[in-house]
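Annex B. Sample input.
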Amino acid sequence: MHVPLDHHSRTPVYLQIKQAVLEAIREGRLAPGARLPATREWARQLGVNRSTVAMAYDELLADGVVESFVGRGTFVARQKLAEVARLDERAARRTPARKMVWEGMFSERAQSPVVESLLDLYQVSTLRDVISFSGSFPDAASFPTREFRNSLHFAERTLGDEIYRYGPVAGYERLREYLAQRMRESGSEVTAENIIVTSGSQQALDLIARALISPGDTVAIENPTYPGAMTAFALAGARLLPIPVDEDGLCVDVLENVLKVQRPKLVYVVPSFQNPTGACLSWERRRRLLALAREHNLPIVEDDYGSHLRFDGDALPHLKALDDTEHVIYVSNFSKSLLPGLRIGWCAAARPVIARLTAFKQNNDITTSPLLQAALWDFCRRKRYEAHLEKIRPIYRARRDLMLRRLAEDFPAETVWTQPAGGLFLWVTLPPSLDATELLYQVRQQGVVFSRGRLFYSDNPKRNTLRLSYGHVTLEQIERGMRVIGTTAKAMLGRATGRTAERFHSHTVPLV
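Annex B, continued. Sample output.
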């Protein structure tokens, strides 16, 4: 059965397959009782993943259009065909209803450039059936699903109805105690009262922005930096003050000069394996940044998504561990290193800060899932988290090393890139004549995507930069995908291109 697939369509491939089956049934090309191709066979014929075909079949099963029998296969249902035909007739007779016109209905914040950039970034990062170096997802093949499922069962068996009620807004007490103990082992002087559990670190940033930022306030922020942070502060009404980043992280000397003439409300920094560059804030700069915070009474928001993903060299202390004056608001999560679907993060700060964040969280989502918090606590107390980290570090190191080799062998000679000692990202700067947007358009036609660097800048974006993530791609995908990007970049070099890249569309998923 031939199915013309459009990989550039807004409609996901699995829904295109579903629609093709429905049309074949309606037109009589698939009769009642007809057997559909096996998922593996059809996936090979269509050139898609087997899971894509399986999702289409699941949709058809849910609608009652097909029936599935173990050991026999999937067949067109007999009893639903008349109903499908009636629905078609009814739809043909129905006068189209006038749809809501949403143009002009969105708030100024929802139409702001930072929101548009964020949508652009995550539309590309969630494209299916491609080799994706976009997104910041951990390796799905290494998810400790069986072990975490055991902890879920333990939580259900031993904690009973408690985990199905609303829990404390600040978080499950045993998990907060574990997080505090873990931070104390790293040198931070915190207790459970200094911690609030959040629905991912993004919620923590949103709560911090609400609690500390008034419209018109200035936030000093790395440039380039994590787009989710830019959005959180900008939507709170802040003016973003870009501070450059080099191989040693945030340029603290530039910040020091800025502080002589401006008074930002806070500074946001990712000191370990910075997103997107992978840079680490040096020991000396960490000390200087804290000294500036004390001198200017400047809060520091430390976003630590992955200091525990270090492959090379000695670990550097968290800013929070060096902070004895409570200037640092520490944010972290389990999404990049464990299971992104948990959506559990936390924030450690002075008690007055935690009190305000708790009040805003109460109004935001009341509480993060007590069941998942309890299961995570059990998972961690059994040392399964440490075991998982030991397992994934060499996996990520091997992927980073292969990506670095491919950069050296496949990319134009003038290309430069970072060499992070850990984390999930590489930052690549192409020769000045190349445009990463045009490169993305070209390699997308060959089944490869990456994140354009311009989406990570709050000011003066560099059009010849890109971020490559190695967390969720296999070694084979790195070999093939990097060769495609490098070969295409070489072909583009020195060739004038007037093409304007098209926008990329896909389903939008929650920010990660």
